[in-house]
Amino acid sequence: MYRKILITTDGSAVSRMTACAGVQFAQQLGAEVLALFVAPEYQYPIYVEIIPPSYPSEEEYRSAMQRAGRDHVQSIVDSCARKGVQCESMTAFSESAALKIVEIATQKGCDLIFMGSHGRSGWGQLLLGSVTNKVLSHSKIPVLVHRLLKEPLPE
Q1: Quick one: pLDDT at residue 47?
Q2: A Pfam family matched by this chain, by name (predicted)?
Q3: Contact 8, 34 (CB under 8 A)
C-alpha cells in the first residue's frame, strides 16, 4: 500500500506521540520512514541600523537549527530502530513549513504524509493546525492526520 511515509515533527509532546503512531503504522505496512523537521529561515533583525554583537550569525543559526532538528527527529529514528523500520531523517529550512513538507515528500518519493493536527499549546497550536491545513490543501499525495485521544502531560 504505502512504501515510504514522511513523518513530520516540531519536537512537542503531541508531535512525538503522533510520530510514534506513525512509526507503528509504517511497521504494520512494512514501509520506510522519512523523519522531517522544518525550521524557519534565518531572519536579520529589522529596524536596527547595527546588528547587535549577541545576535547569531546566519551560520550559527543554521547550525543551531540543525542540532535542534536532529534532537527533534531522534525519537522517530530511535523508535524506527526499535521496531526494525528503515528510517532517514532530515532538517529543512523554509518560511512555509507546509509547502516545504509537500516539496520534500515529493522530492523524496514519499507516498504518504503522516502528521498531527496540532503540536503546541496556545498560539503555537493554532500555527501547526494551519500547517496541517495547508499541507492537506497543497499535497497531491495522501495525508494522514493523526489525532490523539488523550493529550500528553505538559512538558
Answers
A1: 67
A2: Usp
A3: no
120 in Cβ contact with 12 (< 8 Å): yes
pLDDT of res. 1: 86
Sign of CA dihedral 145, 31, 112, 20: positive
Identify the pLDDT of residue 128. 47
* Predicted pLDDT of residue 120: 46
Is the alpha carbon torsion for 12, 16, 21, 25 positive or negative? positive
Taking 70 as the pLDDT cut, the residues of the chain under it are: 47-48, 51, 118-129, 149-155
Q: What is the pLDDT of residue 46?
A: 72
What is the rounded distance in angstroms from the CA atom of residue 148 to the CA atom of residue 128? 15
Instruction: Please check whether residue 45 is in contact with residue 58, taking contact to mean a CB–CB distance below 8 angstroms.
Output: no
One-letter identity of residue 65: M
CATH pick for 4-42+53-146 out of 3.40.720.10, 2.30.30.40, 3.30.70.20, 3.40.50.620: 3.40.50.620
